[in-house]
Amino acid sequence: MTTAASVPPDAVERLRGGLIVSCQAYPGEPMRDPRTTAQVARAAVAGGAAGVRVQGLEDVESTSHALDVPVVGLWKHGDADVFITPTLEHAVGIARAGADIVALDGTRRPRPDGLTLVETIRRLRVEVPAVLVMADCGSLDDALAAQVAGADLVGTTLAGYTGERARTTGADLELVAELVGACRVPVVVEGRVHTPDEAAAAMALGAHAVCVGTAITHPTTITSWFARAVQEARSHPGEGAGERDDEH
């Protein structure tokens, strides 16, 4: 496997003001196939995505060969707190599979291989000099530490999952504002962005880009939203009918 050469080194700049679509499926799901991931990614790009975020070696390789937009790659492994590209070995693997940007756990929590985030990023760039790094963070302190460690971008991916911040219903816009105000490196909004309005609100705070996954590329979850709404409507027939009539 070789690093993709189709995307120029200004991948971060190409994502500015754009939408990143996370194309992932959980193990055991019908869509959990590298070819399917690449097709979903192509569909996302056709719809206007400036880049895609993809999980796993085979999926990253398949997608990077199919697209000419920046590919943010990651490798979810293990059941410990740190599982997003948790070790240097995982980071090097994803970079060599073709990711233009390697996304990894950017928190201050201990990493499974004992390396610090600084050591991980430094040694990754020795192995794959051209690769860029996105730090998935859970707090402002995480983001500031990741910036010092050499990350090219910081994301709000882990906000609400590390115990430092409460989990918000939608994107953690308060954290977005904090990161934009305090960080020199670009900020990517990711995590619980479910509607176009939420994405727009995040961007309005000054984010570099916004990443949306479940609401676009996870049919099982999207279907469950509609199915639940239909079931609730059946349980309470007639409620809201007048309001709907007024809209026509």
From TrEMBL:
Task: Name the GO terms of the biological process aspect.
Answer: carbohydrate metabolic process; N-acetylmannosamine catabolic process; N-acetylneuraminate catabolic process
- Per its UniProt record, what SUPFAM superfamilies does this chain match? Ribulose-phoshate binding barrel
Which top EC class is named for this enzyme in its record?
Answer: isomerase
User: What is the catalytic activity of this protein?
Assistant: an N-acyl-D-glucosamine 6-phosphate = an N-acyl-D-mannosamine 6-phosphate
By its UniProt entry, which Pfam families does this protein fall under? NanE
Q: Sum up the protein's function in the record's words.
A: Converts N-acetylmannosamine-6-phosphate (ManNAc-6-P) to N-acetylglucosamine-6-phosphate (GlcNAc-6-P).
Query: Which named protein is this?
Result: Putative N-acetylmannosamine-6-phosphate 2-epimerase
- Organism annotation: Beutenbergia cavernae (strain ATCC BAA-8 / DSM 12333 / CCUG 43141 / JCM 11478 / NBRC 16432 / NCIMB 13614 / HKI 0122)
Gene expressing this chain: nanE
